[in-house]
Amino acid sequence: MQHAICYISTATSQFNNQEIENLLAEWREKNSNTDIKGILLFSEGHFFQVLEGEKEKVLALYYSIMEDPRHTNVIQVMGKDVSRGSLDGYVVEHLKTPGFSRPNLIRKYCESVKGMDPQTQQQIREILDSFIDTRSL
Questions:
Q1: By C-alpha distance, which of 130, 110, 104, 116 is closest to 79?
Q2: What is the CATH number of the domain that holds 90?
């Protein structure tokens, strides 16, 4: 059975650009190798992540994330079984460029979840919208 979880969290320390880029690359490789798909964004000390894959793997990863001392205030905003996987891979990005186009960015990440049911798509869109909207430009 496929399962999807979406959460937000706050970093416990200030990562410099190189540190966060290294962590994102490490997580992309690790999750891709375990057949976990999703989206991981880091912006101004906060993480936004959607995880999708085999239920046992996704839940095990989420529980380890909750114990990871590099972040705190882990808030699961969605967790549900999904009838089929919708994500093609594992996308990570450090949103650090102040000149980004908010509508284009939201559209880009919402494209990744188009295979999910409409209710789940809407939930992720609203959370993503809020996450991106809180960036100070």
A1: 116
A2: 3.30.70.100
Count: domains in the chain: 1
**Domain that residue 46 falls in:** 2-133
Element (H, E) at 47: strand 46-54
Cβ–Cβ < 8 Å for 77, 24: no
Taking the C-alpha atoms of residue 104 and residue 120, their distance in angstroms, rounded to an integer, is 20
pTM for the full predicted model: 0.75
Mean pLDDT of successive 10-residue segments in the chain (137 residues)? Answer: 88 86 86 85 84 92 93 88 68 62 60 68 73 55
Contact yes or no for 15/23 (Cβ under 8 A):
yes
Distance (Å, whole) CA 72 – CA 79:
18
Helix (H, G, I), strand (E, B) or coil at 90: strand
Pull the structure tokens for residue 15. Answer: 């990562």
CB neighbourhood size of 7 (10 A):
21
